[in-house]
Design a protein that fits this description.
Elements lengths: L2 E2 L3 E4 L2 E4 L3 E5 L2 E7 L6 E6 L2 E7 L9 H12 L8 E5 L5 H9 L4 E5 L3 H10 L7 E5 L3 H6 L6 E6 L14 H10 E13 L4 H11 L4 E6 L1 H4 L5 E8 L5 H9 L6 E4 H8 L23
Parallel strand pairs: 8-9, 8-11, 9-10, 11-12
Antiparallel strand pairs: 1-4, 2-3, 4-5, 5-6, 6-7, 12-14, 13-14, 13-15
């Protein structure tokens, strides 16, 4: 493993990042890039694709727009400050697990990240607060999900990418059936999806979720929903009515405003797409070269 160790200065007990950390992990070349505007904040890139941003001094700070949208879902999944049981499929730098721990103290969390070398890198360079109840397992997302007891989770978040694409076996009805098994009554499932025109993957994922969960919402940049550019969309699902009005307000007031689709408009957006099964599943489309410029 090739690695350029970060050098750091100490000012009191604050560690000030000065150089990137580069390491070869199972998924490719990982780079931890210091945030020049925040003393102990880092962005994680894998093969040049941005994956996560972490501020060790302020884990409730979410920089990436899709993570802020997932943050809204986390905030609305239970009364403010109430501890939850959360499952994170796809760990990255554990940004959202840290967010849950900061905003909902005493929460119990399971993070599933297949890339063991990445987990080691993150633990070493971006250590977790020892008081957080976050257990990390280095296995495939479906394998890790299968180990979670029935009805254990208040919240399941899927944010799994391999080479900037969601693996095919995490896009199917069979996968979501297991998610539904794990989510307790009234719990919430949220997935970070990426697609571009003609949005066939996104429409298929909505149709797949609609066959498993009765309540759905989609949060995305209007330009993405219009098929004008490649980007992220957050799919939210539950067996109970979702807090659409508050989710819409938060999404609209974000620094990068988003639109929330639900009900009939979401059904119309899906356009008759068919649910995806394991037998027919394919990975999400690769982003264009311009996506990360």
């Amino acid at each position: 493993m090739a690695r350029a160790k970060a050098r750091a200065k100490r000012s009191g007990d604050r560690r000030v990042a000065s150089q990137p950390v580069v390491a070869t992990v199972d998924g490719g070349l990982a780079e931890l890039m210091p945030d020049r505007d925040r003393a102990r904040a880092w962005s994680l890139l894998i093969d040049g694709a941005p994956q996560s941003h972490v501020d060790l001094d302020d884990p409730a700070y979410l920089k990436f727009e899709y993570q802020r949208r997932l943050g809204h879902v986390i905030d609305l999944a239970a009364p403010p400050g109430k501890p939850v049981h959360a499952v994170h499929l796809g760990g990255g730098a554990l940004t959202l697990a840290r967010y849950v721990a900061a905003t909902r103290p005493r929460s119990t969390q399971r993070a599933v990240e297949r890339d063991a070398a990445l987990v080691q890198l993150v633990r070493r360079e971006l250590p977790l607060d020892p008081n957080t109840r976050i257990r990390v397992r280095s296995v495939d997302a479906r394998e890790g999900l299968a180990k979670v007891p029935d009805g254990w989770a208040d919240l399941v978040i899927a944010d799994v990418f391999s080479g900037a694409r969601t693996p095919a076996h995490l896009t199917s009805t069979e996968f979501l059936d297991d998610v539904r098994r794990v989510v307790k009554a009234g719990g919430v499932y949220a997935a970070n999806l990426a697609d571009g025109p003609p949005l066939a993957h996104l429409r298929g994922q909505i149709a797949t979720a609609a066959g498993v969960f009765p309540e759905l919402a989609l949060v995305a940049d209007p330009a993405v929903l219009r098929g004008k550019r490649f980007g992220n969309a957050v799919l939210v699902a539950s067996d109970r009515p979702l807090p659409i009005a508050e989710l819409t307000r938060r999404a609209a007031s974000d620094p990068h405003p988003a639109r929330v689709e639900h009900g009939r408009t979401l059904t119309d957006f899906t356009g008759g797409a068919a649910a995806v099964t394991d037998a027919a599943a394919v990975a999400s489309p690769a982003p264009p070269p311009s996506a990360f410029r």
